[in-house]
């Protein structure tokens, strides 16, 4: 359509330019007809879609058939050329539709995807379906790559979040400034997480950064003894900073038995809660993250890409199918 | 914004003459005049007008110690100083130090202290904070663990003189610095201690002269004693054998006593931390051992009581304090406490009115007992009971 409109507006100039670019002498429409009707003219061979769109596995046989036709009857040859022309012009051989000839010509000038040798229609259809599915697969693969990369980023973020915060859902956070004179840098900023009787202490600066630089050292296992645990983490980045982790600290007790029982109960509850947190973390977060944020953007793009490619493929395959049917009918007619 | 070095030096030189002429120890007359001028400004305290001898009751330290503190903080406080009285007269170094010390020692409000000194309350706040920073920067050496063997030995000997505990290097205790928080304060519940007060924990290790040798503060009052201990560097160093690792003394052929500190029942029994025997039906030797421990542990209670009595800002209920700044106020009060002791003020010899630094708080109970520490405690108990009967 675009070509026809443009041809209608600047017809002669455009044709002249096209002719000169193709090496043809500039002339009127009658010469064009001659060119089109002349089988030896390169102009006909150039826009002929059949050799391109129907790669023949046995070109020698076809050549022999043409030779026989030329030898036997020139009329048959004219029929064939007319049919070919009709194929090219969708059944209309008027000069006014020359622009329409050029349109499919230009679109099908680079038909590499049809190069694979397929003998019959079924194979072509299969190839097309394969191609279509391949294109779909390609798109899906691209989308998959996008998804996987996004998932990777998400998972990485999630892992970082997990390692930095250590599954602290449900904990209340308080920032505290602690002074400890036994250390050279006597002032620390700590993040204190608390859920009921469970306390976790993290270094404010080192919790999210330099995770890999931490050297964990367990100490005083005998002292901790299941009731209380402490991990002292030395950090070498930016001087010597420390991180304490009080995983479980029982609440103050005024009576020993009460305190002991409460500590045991606390330990049991903590274990259960940790398990529950782990389960919930494993089960829910990846799904939510994958479904929610990034794929939405990627999926829209992917749909658009797939839709446009499918339209193009359908258009090509429709034209191709029509051409193949006509070619077969023509060959049948010829050999009869 | 860090001040420029050059400006600091310039300012120091500019101020030097002024200070010497007014209040330094070299000018007795100037000092008297400065104090007279200042004491006249302190409203509502007519007793201060009587003379220099009332200086100590106002600032809880001798004039000599005051001058030493001025020399400590001079470089820091006199950089780009722009503070002035309400009448426009600039605040000298001594005015600023006096203002900050008054704020810390009286515990009065900013407005009250400001009115008594004739300055705006914002000036009281700014000068006090600058003083805090200056003491942190320049007074840290007054609060440290003894580094030489001579120091340690001296401490051990003094502790042994109290109730015969050999090789004891310190006493550990905690106290609560109470605050007034409202429900609108973020995380107020976190600071709620077992007595339903909002408070901040201060853990101290005290030597035989009531000097703080190690402090940990800033943790919320909800945490108990042993969890604060576990979070401390002191705990880590002791567990790793980097502290309290000095020479052992031989009590008998099979009994050696290493260095240790003592605590109350709220602390765990560890090889380097002795706590009293718990339970009702204790043997005579164990009861006697507990008495010795308790008497020695009184040192820490006295030190904390004196800290709170001398620096009332951390004694009373502070109204919604900045919980990131409060530990630094506490820290500086502890340093000032030590400075007064180090300067051998007569004020430091005054016995606090009470040993109850934490009224209403009963001792916590920690159940943990290290086996080797238990064995060590039994041997020490037997040794002390033997020496008791001998």
From TrEMBL, chain A:
- Record-given protein name: Uncharacterized protein
Organism of origin: Olea europaea subsp. europaea
PANTHER family in the record, alphabetically?
Answer: FANTOM PROTEIN
Residue stretches of biased makeup (Basic and acidic residues): 128-137, 147-158
List compositional bias (Polar residues) regions by residue number.
28-43, 107-127
Segments for region (Disordered): 1-66, 101-167, 206-229
- Note the superkingdom of the native organism: Eukaryota
From TrEMBL, chain B:
Residue ranges under compositional bias (Low complexity)?
Answer: 21-30
Localization, per the record, is: Nucleus
Basic residues composition bias: which ranges?
1-13
Per UniProt, which keywords does this protein have? Answer: Hydrolase, Metal-binding, Nuclease, Nucleus
Q: Name one GO molecular function term.
A: sequence-specific DNA binding
Is Translocase found in the keyword set? no
The answer to whether UniProt assigns keyword Nucleotide-binding to this entry is: no
Pinpoint the DDE Tnp4 domain residues: 172-338
**Where do the segments described as Disordered lie?**
1-30
- Cofactor(s) needed: a divalent metal cation
Q: Which GO terms describe its cellular component?
A: nucleus
Q: Which family does it belong to?
A: Belongs to the HARBI1 family.
Q: What is this protein called?
A: Nuclease HARBI1
